[in-house]
């Protein structure tokens, strides 16, 4: 019998050794190993270790995309800038996300039309997308080009990030045909002239300008002229010859084709019309009734040129000589006057 045995937990098996001396086998000493199961004792349960917390992975934030209503914005007009924010993968949220806009310090070409340059977004989970917008306006006088904006992204527990964006800006197109001068009436077989005046009132150049005319009842359709580039604030004109193929009316139009500041091909058209009348029939004054002719007229013809004819020739030659003499005298007088003026200036 065992006394003063205390159970301290662990296994419910009690192991002990029994030592005997002077046994039947003649051995002086014998050790016997014994094991008892104590049912009153619960089997020990190993405690489950607490799980090791996973390292915190904070997502990053970036500008995934941005739009401003088209391929470019027009100077002087409001537009909406939309930013699409995106967070990468992670196992925790970004807290207190803030978005701010920064303009170049030397640029006055863009500003906010309303609202604040800083926007509070709040919490964003991993792999989340969020869209925010700003009302903006560009300066009406700025040259065609682009405005550069820096987007700043910050949060309470994540890394700060910046994203530059660029917005193309164009000037409004103000290229116009100001006048078309065409003859109101033409005779059949007559050649008339068409004049087209155009002006570039915008702040951007007009490139690769081509002018042509088309129409009905034109004897020479398809005329085309390459005029090149037209600088801002420049006026110019182009002329065409016009002939009719038949009596009636010429109905035509002038077409100007060009490239604007966006690189897009555009056209301007202006219509014109002209009435074409039949050519007048002119009677030959030399065709006279033979009975009304002077019999003596034949003598002058047969005998050569009449005296009055030679007299007219002499008078004509004399007049030409007189005109030449007058012109030469005027030139000499003008040259002499110029020399005198030069002498006066030297004095």
Low-confidence stretches: 298-303, 317-333, 335-347
What is the H-and-E element order?
EEEEEEEEEEEEEEEEEEEHH
Category by helix and strand content: mainly beta
Number of helices: 2
| Rg on CA atoms, Å | 53 Å
| Straight-line distance between termini | 155 Å
Q: How does the overall form come out from the CA principal axes?
A: rod-shaped
Mean pLDDT: 80
Beta percentage is: over 45%
Number of strands: 19
Biggest sheet, spatial arrangement of strands: 4-11-10-6-8
Describe the sheet with the most strands. Answer: 5 strands, mixed
How much helical structure, as a percent, in the residues?
10-25%
Short description:
The chain is mostly beta strands. The chain is 13% helix and 46% strand.
Give an account of the 3D structure:
With 347 residues, the protein is mostly beta strands. 13% of the residues lie in helices and 46% in strands. It contains two helices and 19 strands. The strands form five sheets. It has a five-stranded mixed sheet, with no helix packed on it. A five-stranded mixed sheet has the order 13-19-18-15-16, with no helix packed on it. A hairpin with a 7-residue loop joins strand 15 and strand 16 (224-230). The longest helix has 40 residues, at 307-346.
């Amino acid at each position: 019998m065992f006394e003063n045995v205390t159970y301290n937990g662990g296994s419910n098996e009690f192991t002990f050794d029994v030592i005997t001396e002077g046994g039947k086998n003649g051995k002086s000493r014998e050790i016997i190993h014994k094991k008892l199961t104590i049912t009153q004792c619960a089997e020990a349960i190993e405690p489950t270790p607490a799980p090791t917390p996973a390292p915190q992975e904070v997502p990053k934030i970036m500008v995934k995309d941005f739009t401003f209503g088209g391929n470019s914005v027009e100077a002087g007009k409001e537009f909406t800038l939309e930013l699409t924010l995106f967070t990468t993968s992670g196992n925790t949220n970004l807290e207190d996300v803030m978005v701010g806009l920064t303009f170049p310090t030397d640029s006055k070409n863009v500003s906010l039309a309303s609202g604040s340059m800083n926007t509070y977004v709040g919490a964003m989970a991993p792999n989340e997308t969020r869209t925010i917008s700003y009302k903006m306006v560009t300066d009406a006088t700025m040259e065609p080009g682009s405005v550069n904006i820096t987007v700043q992204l910050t949060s309470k527990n994540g890394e700060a990030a910046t994203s530059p964006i660029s917005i193309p800006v164009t000037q409004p197109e103000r290229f116009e045909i100001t006048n078309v001068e065409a003859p109101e009436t033409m005779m059949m077989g007559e050649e008339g002239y068409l004049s087209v005046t155009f002006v570039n009132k915008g702040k951007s150049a007009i490139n690769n300008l081509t002018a042509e005319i088309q129409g009905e009842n034109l004897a020479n359709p398809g005329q085309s002229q390459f005029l090149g580039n037209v600088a801002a604030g420049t006026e110019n004109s182009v002329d065409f010859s016009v002939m009719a193929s038949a009596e009636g009316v010429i109905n035509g139009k002038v077409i100007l084709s060009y490239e604007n500041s966006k690189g897009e091909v555009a056209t301007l058209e202006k219509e014109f019309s002209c009435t074409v009348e039949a050519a007048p029939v002119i009677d030959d004054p030399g065709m006279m009734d033979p009975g009304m002719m002077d019999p003596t007229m034949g003598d002058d013809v047969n005998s050569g040129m009449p005296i009055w004819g030679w007299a007219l020739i002499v008078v004509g030659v004399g007049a030409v000589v007189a005109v030449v003499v007058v012109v030469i005298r005027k030139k000499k007088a003008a040259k002499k006057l110029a020399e005198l003026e030069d002498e006066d200036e030297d004095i």
